[in-house]
Amino acid sequence: METPSERPAVRLIGWLSPYVHRAEVALRLKGVPYDLLHDDMASKSHLLLAHNPVHKKCWKALWVALWAEPGEARAAAAREAKEGLALLEAQLPAGKRFFGGDAIGLLDIAASGVARWLGVFEEMAGVWLLTEEERPALCQWARENA
After folding, report:
1. Are strands 10-14 and 34-38 parallel, antiparallel or unpaired?
2. Looking at residue 10, what DSSP letter applies?
3. CA 141 distance to own-chain centroid
4. Among candidates 120, 118, 121, 113, which has minimal Cα distance to 130?
5. N or C, fewer C-beta in 10 Å, the chain?
6. Backbone angles phi, psi at 75, to 5 degrees
7. What gap in Å lies between CA 44 and CA 59, rounded to an integer?
8. Cβ contact 105:98 at 8 Å
9. Domain boundaries, the chain
10. Are 33 and 8 in contact (CB under 8 A)?
């Protein structure tokens, strides 16, 4: 049985989110031992509520606005996102695994959390942003790192 002194001092509370993923990758890279405590976002635990300063804020209006946008606004947002992905792909050095070359960096960590879920969001919204035909290098990076 594990004693309190044997438990990692860091407890990461979360669920399948890019932000939790980012923190988890950073902790692993730094070699910091941690416990990952999965929490149910529909019924938040007292531990999460006590340590989460934004638990009372509501993002529902933002999500409703995003999914309810009219066609042209959504198309404009997709064009803007694709322009951003083109800029991102341009930063990938040819023949290297990471944005920084041979070593993983903060951009890889941050982008991997988004890349992990991008396909789900694309399917839900019916908008395809990252395709093999348009962004082959970025797609390869996502397969290897997300």
Report:
1. parallel
2. E
3. 14
4. 118
5. N
6. -65, -40
7. 16
8. yes
9. 4-51, 70-145
10. yes
Domain 4-51 coded CATH 3.40.30.10:
yes
Q: How far apart are CA 104 and CA 29, in angstroms?
A: 9
CATH 1.20.1050.10, applies to 70-145: yes
Q: Tell me, rounded to whole angstroms, the distance of Cα 124 from its chain centroid.
A: 16
Pair of tokens at residue 49: 């509520």
Cα-to-chain-centroid distance, residue 83: 19
Question: Rounded CA gap, 106 and 93, in Å?
Answer: 16
Count of beta carbons in the 10 Å neighbourhood of residue 109? 21
User: Integer distance in angstroms from the first to the last C-alpha of the chain?
Assistant: 34
pTM of the prediction? 0.62
pLDDT tens per residue across span 70-116: 677 777 788 888 899 999 999 999 999 999 999 998 889 888 888 88
Quick one: which H or E segment has residue 100?
none
Q: How many CB atoms lie within 10 A of CB 118?
A: 19
For residue 37, the cross-strand partners are 13
